[in-house]
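pls design
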């Protein structure tokens, strides 16, 4: 049975100080953000910070998700290659406009799960446009 989540807190992926605070938050999901809260010139370092935080997964009482960049950004493959590892429970995909985008992401994710011998990682698609609503 799928777990129902009641609360999700976004944590900017480029600020290690917020990572420490997140360890004390009592939310169902802590979601490290790679999208809007991280400037383009800090995306690479944010991925590394998140990767390191996932290594200390036991310090967090919440489920750990990561919000990737949007499908149209072209950054999702880099996001997933860096962050998919033991310790991650799921990903949030922002600005999803159609099922084709999700299938492409799922294909990359499934390949990474198999190569790293991980259990299936949850996906939360976020529909944020009229186009996405019409196509859903």
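designed seq:
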């Amino acid at each position: 049975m799928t777990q129902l989540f009641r609360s999700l807190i976004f944590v900017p992926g480029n600020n290690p100080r917020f990572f420490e605070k997140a360890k004390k938050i009592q939310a169902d999901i802590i979601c490290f953000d790679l999208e809007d809260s991280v400037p383009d010139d800090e995306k690479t370092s944010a991925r590394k910070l998140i990767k390191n935080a996932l290594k200390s997964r036991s310090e967090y009482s919440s489920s750990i998700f990561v919000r990737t960049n949007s499908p149209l950004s072209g950054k999702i493959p880099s996001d997933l290659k860096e962050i998919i590892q033991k310790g991650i429970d799921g990903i949030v995909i922002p600005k999803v406009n159609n099922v084709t985008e999700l299938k492409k992401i799922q294909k990359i994710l499934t390949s990474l799960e198999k190569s790293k011998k991980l259990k299936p990682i949850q996906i939360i698609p976020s529909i944020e446009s009229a186009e996405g609503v019409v196509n859903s």
